């Protein structure tokens, strides 16, 4: 549910201004020209998200699904750059809930980032919380999703940010229509159980089907009843802006429309130099904005989404594919409410092989940033350097010594620089709260054991040697690892270089790495082991992509640069759900700057509390007084 008043006084004022335009242009031409350059007043966009469980039936099976407002996917949030957003989350489900606003920078607002036990304690069943945030300096397609266990498979939706000067200010031809396209999963199992299985080292589960905008498509049927298919009606000669989102848990996807081309114009709410292609590759967490011109012969065309995976000997997921239909309709047909005959078979596109990992490598490598007047400059130099391996390992179920290589005595985990993230559970406060009130003893205040994320991996080897993929003596020596909460601190304003290196230990797939609260400049990517002496010279410091989710290629690496200028406690993780559940996560802490406008303000009054938090109330009150005194002395 959305509050459509959107700050009524400001809306009425804007309407009045628009209605008086003809008189003003006749009398005060100069002033009108000046006014046209002034953006509309910012609004407050309000939504109410009621999280509950509903029964949905697909493929002859009824499943209890956790959704927002009874919808799958959930409602889209549409705002104008500069607006404020208030989302009232009412939790009527049996699950703890948080909502993450994927890609929203949350400037000086880490409290609203929505990561359980990291930036907030979850919203308990029967409770509510209002997320408030601004959308400044961002335009394009982002999305929101649950950040608890695997619930984002059904709890997600689009977050669309339009230019404050209107759609005529797009740096590309104004589209006839904008259409969100969400690639997702359908699961007919308990998603909490899915998460528990992965944390316990069981990986045999897979989604029942792939969806486009919640529809399974005509490739799926049960007892002869074909599932509903997503249909996009297009008018000949018109241009459409597809806002593409990959909300899937497990897979990167190729997307094609038979007989049509895409012109990619933005990714992760950052404009790119227009890139024309017949195929889009999109990883979990990524968004792409792509123009499609209806310039084919009138007819019906399949839109196909095909999951990508590494070849054997990697563990093979079931073949995952779905398709929607693009069909042409003339104005006459629309008026008569006629559509193309149902017996006209749509044209199928030629799809790559599911094991083709080079097409996505070149697709992502061909995207470059479009320079805009407000584009952030690429820092010429960095202050800190990190080399982070993304790998698998194992821990013993009992004791420090055990059989590995798939033995039941050990649990397979995912790591960053050989440390697997262990989620805080029974803690007194979120990590952010502990950091804010007890910076000198954050670990004790949160009740967790923190580990420093090292700048380089603990194990050095040939990271992309394919001999490490299969279990055996060679890979077994690389398995032993540790669990904890890996943390890396950065001073405010530090320019940080990170090289993410995929490895071949027990798997060789790609890794979509998502950094909360910041965008990253993608300087370079490559296949094989990173070599600074060779690869630094390839860094693009002119027009690198700007991303919040960067795909680290299969058996390869990617170099990114970001400015740590947003104080808070930020999640950095792989957006493959199995990797995140297994521990491919770290926490980046950005310290306060030297002034109030570079320092994290106190939490909101209705900030959710952990069950154990009451005992810290007095300590927090003292900590808040100290924090206020600190701000007063700046």
From TrEMBL:
Pfam families: Cu-oxidase, Cu-oxidase_2, Cu-oxidase_3
Positions of transmembrane segments: none
The record's free-text note on cofactor binding: Binds 4 Cu cations per monomer.
Cofactors: Cu cation
Gene Ontology BP annotations: lignin catabolic process
Localization annotation: Secreted, Extracellular space, Apoplast
Keywords: Apoplast, Copper, Lignin degradation, Metal-binding, Oxidoreductase, Repeat, Secreted
Matching Gene3D superfamilies: Cupredoxins - blue copper proteins
Swiss-Prot/TrEMBL catalytic activity: 4 hydroquinone + O2 = 4 benzosemiquinone + 2 H2O
Location (main, coarse): secreted
Positions of region (Disordered): 595-634
EC number(s) recorded for this UniProt protein: 1.10.3.2
GO MF: hydroquinone:oxygen oxidoreductase activity; metal ion binding
Keyword Oxidoreductase in annotation: yes
GO CC terms, sorted: apoplast
UniProt-listed NCBIfam families: laccase
Task of the protein: Lignin degradation and detoxification of lignin-derived products.
Family: Belongs to the multicopper oxidase family.
Protein name: Laccase
């Amino acid at each position: 549910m959305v509050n459509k008043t959107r700050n009524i006084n400001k809306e009425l004022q804007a309407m009045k201004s628009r209605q008086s335009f003809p008189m003003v242009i006749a009398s005060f031409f100069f002033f009108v020209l000046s006014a046209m350059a002034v953006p509309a007043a910012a609004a407050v966009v309000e939504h109410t998200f009621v999280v509950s469980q509903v029964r949905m039936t697909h493929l002859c099976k009824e499943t209890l699904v956790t959704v927002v407002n009874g919808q799958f996917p959930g409602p889209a949030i549409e705002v104008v750059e500069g607006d404020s957003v208030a989302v009232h989350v009412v939790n009527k489900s049996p699950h703890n809930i948080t909502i993450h606003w994927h890609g929203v920078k949350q400037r000086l607002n880490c409290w609203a980032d929505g990561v359980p036990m990291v930036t907030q304690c979850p919203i308990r069943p029967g409770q509510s919380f209002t997320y408030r945030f601004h959308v400044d300096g961002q335009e394009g397609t982002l999305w929101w999703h649950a950040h608890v266990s695997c619930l984002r498979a059904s709890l997600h939706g689009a977050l669309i940010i339009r230019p404050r000067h209107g759609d005529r200010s797009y740096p590309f031809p104004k589209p006839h229509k904008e259409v969100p396209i969400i690639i997702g999963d359908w699961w007919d199992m308990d998603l909490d159980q899915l998460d528990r299985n992965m944390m316990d080292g069981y990986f045999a589960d897979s989604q029942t089907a792939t969806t486009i905008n919640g529809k399974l498509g005509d490739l799926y049927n049960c007892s002869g009843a074909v599932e509903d298919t997503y249909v996009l009606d297009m008018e000949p000669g018109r241009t459409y802006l597809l806002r593409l989102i990959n909300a899937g848990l497990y897979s990167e996807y190729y997307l094609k429309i038979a007989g049509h081309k895409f012109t990619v114009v933005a990714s992760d709410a950052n404009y790119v130099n227009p890139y024309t292609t017949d195929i889009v590759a999109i990883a979990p967490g990524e968004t792409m904005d792509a123009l499609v011109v209806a310039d084919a012969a009138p007819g019906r065309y399949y839109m196909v989404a095909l999951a990508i995976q590494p070849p054997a000997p990697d563990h093979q997921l079931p073949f995952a594919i779905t398709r929607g239909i693009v069909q042409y309709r003339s104005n006459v047909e629309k008026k008569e409410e006629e559509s193309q005959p149902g017996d006209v078979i749509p044209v199928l596109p030629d799809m790559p092989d599911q094991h083709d990992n080079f097409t996505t490598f070149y697709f992502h490598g061909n995207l470059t940033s479009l320079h805009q007047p407000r584009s952030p400059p690429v820092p010429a130099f960095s202050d800190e350097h990190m080399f982070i391996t993304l790998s698998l390992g194992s821990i013993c179920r009992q004791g420090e010594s055990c059989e590995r290589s798939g033995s039941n005595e050990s649990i397979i985990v995912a790591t960053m620089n050989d440390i697997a993230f262990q989620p805080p559970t029974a803690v007194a406060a979120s990590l952010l709260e502990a950091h804010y009130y007890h910076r000198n003893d954050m670990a004790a205040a949160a009740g967790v054991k923190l580990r420093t994320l090292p700048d380089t991996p603990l194990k050095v080897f040939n990271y992309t040697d394919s001999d490490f993929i299969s279990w055996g003596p060679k890979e077994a020596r690389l398995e032993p690892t540790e669990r904890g909460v890996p943390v890396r601190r950065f001073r405010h304003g530090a320019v940080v270089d990170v090289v993410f290196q995929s490895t071949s230990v027990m798997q060789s797939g790609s890794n979509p790495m998502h950094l909360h609260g910041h965008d990253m400049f993608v300087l370079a990517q490559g296949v094989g082991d990173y070599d600074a002496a060779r690869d630094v010279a390839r860094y693009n410091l002119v027009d690198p992509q700007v991303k919040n989710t960067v795909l680290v290629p299969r058996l390869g690496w990617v170099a990114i640069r970001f400015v740590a200028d947003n104080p808070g406690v930020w999640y950095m993780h792989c957006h493959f759900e199995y990797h995140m559940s297994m521990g491919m996560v770290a926490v980046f802490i950005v310290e306060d700057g030297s002034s109030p406008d570079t320092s994290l303000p106190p939490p909101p009054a209705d900030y959710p509390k952990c069950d154990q938090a009451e005992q810290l109330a007095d300590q927090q009150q003292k900590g808040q007084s100290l924090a206020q005194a600190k701000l007063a002395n700046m």
